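May I ask for an example protein's residues together with how it folds?

___
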Amino acid sequence: MNLKSRDQLIKQIANLLRQNKELTEKYSKLERERDALLIENERFKGLLEKHKLSTARTIEEERSIRFNMVTVLFADIHGFSKLFESLDSTGVMDELDEILFEFDSIATKYHIEKIKTIGDSFMCAGGIPEKNITNPVDVVLAAIEMRNYLDAYEYSKRGKDRIWELKIGVHTGPVTATISGRKKSSYDIKGETVNIASRIEAVSRKGEILISAMTFELVKEFFGCDYYGKLPVKYTGDLPVYHVEGILPGFSIGGAGLAPGESFWTKYKLIQFTDIQEIILDKLEKELPSFLYYHNVKHTVDVVTEVELIGWAEGCSEEEILLLKTAGLFHDLGFTIEFDEHEYHSTVLARQMLPSFGYNYDQIERICGIIMATKLPPKPCNLLEEIICDSDLDYLGRSDFIPVSNSLFEELRSQNKITSINDWNKMQVKFIAGHQYFTATARSLREVNKQSQISRISSLIEKE
């Protein structure tokens, strides 16, 4: 091999070595890039799994509930065009946030659920998540307080001048609520009720609270309302709409129509009683001992019915009727804790539960006194205590005395408090003979029948 050939070969080898080095470097680079891609791929896989899990959890956590009676409120705050003339953008948002924060507080005060706030619009609904019969009244009360607040807010800021204006639309009906969230539930509601409330707000004028005919029928005993006009509603025809002036003078403080007075809350609680009754009767149904054949749910319902009947006949006021019905509802609730001294335990439960329904201290103490009056032997100290004592022993003069009496016997026998039906009948004759109804109404309704019971039971004793 000559010198020239050898130099060419060396050059070729050098080129091959250089190319090999470059290929090795490229291969190493590709390996690094591949490793990085594998890591990134694994990261994306993890994110995808988390997303799938999160989506699955969201689907699991979200649930829909149908509510048959919900009152929806739409509030729209106007004033941006005027605001830009006198305030900067920061001032605009600060004032709006302040107003919406107060609206949220008002809704909370009346146990109304805020649904959402979009810009200068505020939406809330009464009757969710806890169903209640008073939600139309609650929402209209909140609407009036929102209007009163904005009036006072504007006056404190600008005197007689106004920038912010409020429009409110309210409608009552069924909705479907979607509930989501693990730590704190949030609600979204849909349905024709929501659409109608929004449309009512849209047709209202500044400073007005407009309500549908459905809401009007449920609140007209509390609020002064004027017929406003008709709103065309798809598939259902024209819907009458009413303008809320304020609380009726007889139910408002000083007759001004701005804030509810004591008479308002008494009437309100008489309606709310339906909700309380449902709660207590459900508790009795679930928690009363099975051996209570007489002191059962039916007996409680009988007493509640009878105290109202006798109470009206005896000339009681609405507040006294409220106290009587509440005491009748609670008077045997203590049986869920203990048979003996159940009256005392009933008062303990009443003191625990009634404050959450707006009963004040004096009302609760009077209710507890009425409950304790049912402890045998009855020793009532006032008319309301006399009424519940007569109602509690109303069966003594009723035509169904014998089966009711037998259920009481079975209740006592199951606890070994009495064993012989003959001894029971003798005890009954003695008790009825010494018993007297306290109120004129009970005496006129039951006294004659009560005397006939003595003869009936005596005849049973003689046959044995």
Remarks:
- The domain at 265-463 is CATH 1.10.3210.10 (Hypothetical protein af1432).
- The two ends are 146 Å apart (CA to CA).
- Confidence is low (pLDDT under 50) at residues 56-60.
- Residues 98 and 454 are 72 Å apart (CA to CA).
